[in-house]
Design a protein that fits this description.
single chain, alpha/beta, three-stranded parallel β-sheet
Length: 298
């Protein structure tokens, strides 16, 4: 008979990994999470809305199964709390879809810059970011890909899609970009190991502006210096970066400064966003300044 435990009430908030039944990548990552750690099943209250829940033997993680897709999980933090499973950080183990069909491992935070919210969340709303978790997971993905000699791009994506209505910090950890990669066991193992290596140690945080969907310059800075990023807005979303959105990005990233991918930005966007940041008391640091101040000793 399987021993099913009730979650303990003392210091009950855990790093919570959400795996979605219809998401092939999510199930691939889950398979490896279950192999890499010892887990004990948890008793769920009736009508919790969750398929299953487990806690790692070391007490650091919970693994929670949902039947829906991740992007429409607004209010998930409250739902977890109601089930006796409060989260300190939510990690969505997910697939990444791309027309380019690139082998990729990605992390990003969620939010909608514009007045549209086609893929979950609310318009003009951003989730609470976890820059420390994004940095540690992406860095470990990069290290493991190199160690295994896998042909996968490891990259930070810009802020996009839902959920947005979460008061607990959250991030996505993804495998892309087609069914071939979503079900690749090596990619699943890398993503699972990187998630389990997550660190919440405080790091210097920037908000990013400019560049493409795959924030290449921001990725380089995250991997090669001591900083991380919270919310990132690509060049094609900068028209929506008004004072309310920028303020929200700074607050929900707990950002200390900003970074511009200058060559990709229109001068009017640079000027407008610079003025907003100045009003909020944030400096814009150039790449050279970030590398000088936060670069690592060789």
């Amino acid at each position: 008979m399987t021993d099913i435990s009730k979650p303990e009430n003392v210091n009950n908030s855990k790093i919570t990994i959400i795996c979605s039944a219809p998401d092939l990548s999510s199930q691939n990552i889950k398979t490896h999470l279950l192999r890499l750690r010892e887990w004990k099943p948890l008793e769920l209250p009736p009508e919790s809305g969750f398929s299953a829940a487990r806690e790692s033997a070391d007490g650091k993680f919970r693994l929670v199964d949902i039947e829906e897709i991740h992007v429409f999980q607004d209010g998930l933090d409250k739902k977890l709390e109601a089930a006796g499973l409060p989260a300190s950080l939510i990690i969505f183990a997910s697939k990444h879809r791309s027309k380019e069909e690139i082998n990729s491992l990605t992390v990003h935070c969620t939010g909608n810059s514009s007045g549209e919210a086609r893929l979950g969340g609310l318009p003009k709303s951003l989730a609470v970011a976890s820059p420390a978790a994004m940095k540690s997971i992406l860095s470990e993905m990069k290290r493991l890909v190199g160690e295994k000699g896998l042909k996968y791009d490891v990259t930070l994506e810009v802020t996009h899609h839902g959920p947005t209505e979460l008061s607990v910090p959250s991030i996505y950890a993804e495998i892309g970009s087609t069914e071939v990669q979503w079900t690749d066991p090596e990619a699943g193992e890398v993503a699972a190991k990187a998630i389990l290596a997550v660190s919440l140690e405080k790091v210097p945080v920037a908000v990013g502006f400019g560049g493409g969907h795959y924030a290449m310059r921001q990725t380089g800075l995250l991997l090669e210096t001591d900083i991380s990023f919270g919310h990132n807005f690509p060049k094609y979303q900068l028209e929506f970066a008004d004072e309310a959105l920028v303020r929200q990005a700074v607050e929900k990233s707990n950002a200390e400064f900003a970074y511009f991918d200058r060559k990709s930005m229109k001068s009017e966007d640079k000027k407008r966003i610079s003025e907003i940041l100045e009003k909020l008391g944030l400096k814009v640091l150039k790449e050279s300044e970030i590398r000088e101040k936060y670069g690592r000793e060789e």
